[in-house]
Amino acid sequence: MNLLFLKNSFIKFRVCLVLAKKQQKIGIAHIFAGKLICIDCKSTMVKLETSKGKYYFNCKLARSPYKKCTPHIIHYENLVNIVTTKIADKINTYCEFDDITEKLNNFKGSNKVDLLLKDSTTLQKEIEALANSITNLYLDKTNNIISEQEFIEISSNIRLRKTEKQTEYEKISKELEAIKNKQKCHNENVKLIEKYRNFNELNFRIVNDFVDCIKIGIRDKKTKEQTVEIHWNF
Whole-model pTM above 0.85? Predict the structure, then answer.
């Protein structure tokens, strides 16, 4: 995980934390601060309170003075239950193996990585050999072993082969770097899963670590069903 990603994640976390503190009320913090979005107009969802002291969320643009969207109301407790279940399911999916480290070891022991490393080493040697060939060829020319024209033709062919090998080497290097970055992210995800493997109660930090955003749809009056789309950080 690179420094830029860590910096952006930290900034995002701080912004959400400030929002959560601002919306704290009667001891109940808004654990979904900065995460809720109306599925239709893409506006933010605001936390409100009923006359009976119950909390719920609604699309910001559905309220006065905007009234540019329809109500996308979802009760606080219902959303907590939905997100808690979804996060628990995600953790269980990661924990298919009895020992979570076994999953990490299988990832590290990829045959593809071994093959790429082997090919990379071979290409490095071939590139070095071709570079030496050009040097030796130049010495042959200066010693009048080969003519100027022969040097130009042979060295041109060697340089072309060297360029092809370098291109192939760079491609493999990028692929290895991508796998390395993916492995780092995987390691961080495994640590996160281990950290919250047996969590009892949903809180702001858990939501922030797992969830990128949550899109809330309109509740069907007949079926009572409501779309809640969770977009994950990983």
Answer: no
φ, ψ of residue 180 in degrees (nearest 5): -60, -45
Q: Is the pLDDT of residue 15 over 70?
A: no
111 pLDDT band (50/70/90 cuts)? confident
